[in-house]
């Protein structure tokens, strides 16, 4: 967990951040270090700082490296917001030059929590309600159970669709309207098929449309 503090008064802003970082080495193995830099000087011309939390990398490049590289050629700014927008554009340009494999990795990282949450919540609801399905035996019972499972999954897809519609657009996806390339679309479709391999095409299509549109 990252702890960051910003204190503002009439004459200055004070920034502070902890130095702990947790690195995962497998599904259950984690190690914490107390030597991470999370606060950086953005400009040599202006007293502007950048604090980082969460992932310390951007497109698999350490953010510290990107900040220092940007700082070497950073111009002078009249407003802090102008500096922030310029740095985000710099990250966007860097991101567009990343290899396709790295872009695909980050796309999957972005959609994985939403997909896993939908499936997990649907499975929990399924287990809670399955005991209320009348057991008539044979194929009729199995069909009722399968229909119930798929209907609950559709419910969770609609819940997540509503949640995604309220998430603000990212600020550093580049100029103009954002769109997925065909490679990105194929990556999303393939990942959804893997996660929901035990569902029908209607479910996979609903999940795909939620992220591709």
Which tags fit this structure?
two-stranded antiparallel sheet; alpha+beta; 213 residues; 2 domains; two-stranded antiparallel ribbon
Quick take:
With 213 residues, the protein is α+β, with helices and mostly antiparallel strands. 52% of the residues lie in helices and 13% in strands.
What does this structure look like?
- The protein has 213 residues and is an alpha+beta fold.
- The protein folds into two domains: 4-96, no CATH class; 100-212, no CATH class.
- It is built from six helices and eight strands, in the order E-E-E-E-E-E-E-E-H-H-H-H-H-H.
- The strands form four sheets. A two-stranded antiparallel sheet has the order 1-2.
- Strand 3 and strand 4 form a beta hairpin.
- Helix 3 (100-129) packs parallel to helix 5 and helix 5 (182-195) packs across helix 6.
- The two termini are 33 Å apart.
Instruction: Let me know the largest β-sheet.
Output: 2 strands, antiparallel
Sequence of secondary-structure elements: EEEEEEEEHHHHHH
What is the number of independent domains? 2
Shape: elongated
What does the average pLDDT come to? 77
Distance between the termini: 33 Å
How many β-strand stretches? 8
- What is the helix tally? 6
Which class best fits the helix and strand makeup?
Answer: alpha+beta
Into which percent range does the helicity of residues fall?
40-55%
Rg over CA atoms: 23 Å
Main sheet strand line-up: 1-2
Strand content: 5-15%
Topology:
Elements lengths: L3 E5 L4 E5 L3 E4 L5 E4 L5 E3 L7 E3 L5 E2 L2 E2 H10 L7 H17 L3 H30 L8 H28 L16 H14 L5 H12 L1
Antiparallel strand pairs: 1-2, 3-4, 5-6, 7-8
Helix pairs in contact: 3-4, 3-5, 4-6, 5-6
